[in-house]
Amino acid sequence: MTSSNIPVGFLRSPVNTETPTLVGPDEAEYVDFAFQNAVGVHIQGRNSVVAIVSPNACIVTQITAISPTSWPDTYNTIANVDRVMTEVEGLYDTYRGRLSGATAYLVFGHNRGLMLAPTQIDLMQRRLYQMGLPSEDHGYEVQPSTALPAAATFVITAKGTVSVYLEDELIN
Question: Who's near 40: CB < 8 A, 6+ residues apart?
Fold first, then answer.
């Protein structure tokens, strides 16, 4: 992604000189800040983001907590959350040395103040807690239009100091 095609709401100023790693749905990415200075997520639909961020590196995942096709089937959505969090835990165990002093962020959708997918969010929180990483929780308002390409944006930049943004607002 180049500066000319970074979408509005994707934190143009800190990212415009970098090519960020973009994390898609149900992917977990490890990024070492020695090699990459920006990580971004176009949070799609009602998805959630789990990020484990240290001064040296981060793990970021976008988790499909609610799928319109599986909405009545909570077993599938919980199984998906569990699968992705197991992948996150594996990455954390592998790169624990680079992630010392990490903070965990959990970003989830809400609509008019009501948390979407509370059962799935609870599972994410419990898994982070079991890893010794209680989460800092942040919500974003889910847009009513499904035609929008992203419901929110989440960006981590690491030029000197690590900065974490949700919808262009610094949250760390």
Answer: 1, 10, 11, 15, 20, 21, 22, 23, 153, 154, 155, 156
CATH code given to domain 3-170:
3.30.1330.200
Q: For residues 13 and 35, is the Cβ–Cβ distance under 8 A? A: no
Q: Please tell me the pTM assigned to this model.
A: 0.84
Q: Mean pLDDT per 10-residue run, the chain (172 residues)?
A: 44 53 87 89 84 96 69 69 95 97 93 81 95 93 62 82 87 90
Tell me the backbone φ, ψ of residue 65, rounded to 5 degrees: -85, -30
Q: Which of 154, 158, 172 is nearest to 11 (CA)?
A: 154
- Rounded Cα distance between 16 and 93, Å, is 32
Say how far apart CA 18 and CA 7 lie, in whole Å.
14
